[in-house]
What we know:
- GO terms for molecular function: sulfotransferase activity.
- The chain is of the alpha+beta class and about 575 residues long.
- The protein has three domains: about 140-230; about 235-330, no CATH class; about 355-570, P-loop containing nucleotide triphosphate hydrolases (Rossmann fold), CATH 3.40.50.
- The chain has 18 helices and 22 strands.
- Strands 9, 10, 11, 12, 13, 14 and 17 form a seven-stranded antiparallel β-sheet that branches. A six-stranded antiparallel β-sheet has the order 2-4-3-8-1-5, covered by helices on one side.
- Strand 15 (about 315) and strand 16 form a beta hairpin.
- Helix 1 (about 1-20) crosses helix 2, helix 9 (about 365-375) crosses helix 17 and helix 14 runs parallel beside helix 18.
- The longest helix is centred in the first third of the chain and has 25 residues, at about 25-45.
- Residues about 40-60, about 70-95 and about 95-135 have low confidence and may be disordered.
Amino acid sequence: IVNGGASMAKPLLKIQRYFRRKPVRFFSLILLYLTAGSLVFLHSGFVGDSGPGARGGRVSVVAAEMGRRTSSSDIRSLGIMNRRFKDTRRSGRRYGPPWMKKMGQDGQGMDGRGRDYTSSWNRALKGRSAKDMDDGRAKYIGCYVDDTKKRALRGVSFFDYKKMTVFRCQDNCAERGYMFAGLEFGAECYCGHKIQAANVSESDCNMECKGEKSNVCGGANRLSIYRLELSQESARRYGSAIFKGCFHRPDNVTLALPFSAVIQNMSVDKCVDMCTEREKSLAVLAGDRCYCGFPTPLFSLHELEDEDMCLHRCHGEEFESCGNSEYFVVYQTQVQDNRCMDRHFLPTRTKQLVALASFPGAGNTWARHLIELATGFYTGSFYFDGSLYNKGFKGERDHWRSGRTICIKTHESGRKEIEAFDLSILVIRNPFKALMAEFNRKYGGHIGFASQAHWKGKEWPEFVKNYAPWWASHTLDWLNYGRNVHVVHFEHLKRDLFSKLKGMVQFLGLKVSEERLLCVEGQKDGNFKRSGLRKLEYDPYTPEMKANINELIRTVDAALKKRNMSGVPEEYMPR
């Protein structure tokens, strides 16, 4: 034993002598040890409380608003629960109903930090049968001639000589807002808004798709063309330019559109190319003259005319209209209008906290995008989303109480959380749309889509059961406890962006710049819009779901009217 103790002491003596000769290294080692211990302690503090908590004990606000119309058994069946969260600087928690916490405890659907890993992208591009495409997403039109010098579809195109499928081509064209998708040589995909060629025999389209042998993808100089049924209102295009419509000549055209030129054999391409070179966002065709400029109060693009007024065939383009001296055809080029792109933190910290509140899926991220462009100031968030920070929401990293942002995104509800804010903009969206949008976000990311397996599996019914009551209780909580609430309906904002966004800017106490608002209209979508073919083949809501949600809509509608506000938009109900 003595010999063993002596052998153990020798290494210790060597270490002691080493640090006596090098004391700086000893202190460095101690410092590293203490730093590592501190980091471990802090990490455990953040992760230890990672699940969404709900402090119960109070009667549901929805039940109170329903009053006598709802029996106690009906109230229990709604399963409405108050959602409250502790104020944590940067936890990995996500908002959501209590059942998400149980999933985290069971280890299903959550990662080690309590985050939802199911939000990874699930956008697998699968092939579809070519001739039975009238399924609400795309309809087969026929086989058409295609000429390399005069394309039948003149939008964007791409090739894949190994994996081209019908659905892949359709999805790519739909995401870019085109009305038609055509396939050629089994591997080429062309997009367009107009078919500019003759129809031919179906036997001419006889080449199999490279990525799916069961489907036909055109032939030699022949296109298999499909008409796309887009899942959202998508822009009409000519190549890279977006068609804005037909407009009456402005009173002072030289002031409204300062640059112009006469073009021989006028075509849409020539005018768009000229204005793009001049770095103008608008290309305006007026017969043989092309004007370039930006939207201004003198030419706001708010008074749309009937397209028949602009019917005047271009000299250099057989299938397109070039307008005339009184009615102009307007396209938006790819040039970015920079009048509303500068954004900063507030020059002085504000003590007034303004919430931008909404139920998940109600367009909060889009509203933040609009507010930032309209005001020139960053918005903040009650949470932290690294993907949004990387997309330009620089206020995402600030603590929500920093006072450096114009307003703060939140999905919270409950009296304590709501009363922390001095003012609030409450964005409300049709629950049928909001629930589907949040379900897509949960299983497909901010601009992704849930898979068919998720829609048809147990996830969707469980989601509706837990989230639908929250849609109502969230709105009612903000109406009851918010100090100064400005209600904005998502549908109204989409339909009349200029005036509704103007009202939001005024509510924030800022001076309105009409030039800036007109700029926002041209960049309104940002990178936060789901587009493409991801339209479900069926209505995912069962009759029972619809009945429950319709009752919630009526409750919210009554609560709004009780406070002398306009009720929910007509399209909310009946369904």
